[in-house]
Amino acid sequence: MHQLENLYRQIIMDHYKNPRNKGLKEDESYVTARIKNPSCGDDVTIQTKAEDGVVKDVRHEGSGCSICCSSASVLSVRMKNQTVEDALGLVDDYLKMIIDKNTAINEQLDDALAYQGVRDFPARVKCATIAWKAFAETLKKG
Length: 142
Ligand code: ZN
Known about the structure:
By secondary structure, the protein is α+β, with helices and mostly antiparallel strands. Helix content is 44%, strand content 19%.
């Protein structure tokens, strides 16, 4: 278990230090949603481009703690080329993994599995979930 925790910590720090898909596009085909978490100072904006029911691109921008910023990067990688339906299903599974200790974990979350430990730290739940909630908003708006 200790090795797994190390691996998870590495995934989080890697995405924090080298964020993928960072920076917003000036392109009207993207749908934008922003969520702030005042208790930690996190401020995340997610931009999504969906076409024919498929997520083509996810961008993110913002500032905050390592959990928040890295989870936006992990999200942007995981969601590319998913159908909108599957993407919303993954968001649900991710939120359940973090909020509900009794839920079965969906292994298809891949790198996002790194955040499962957050459920033991209620104060960090918002940090780990706002990017994913903002992403779901962009899909529901779009
Ligand atoms: Zn935070």
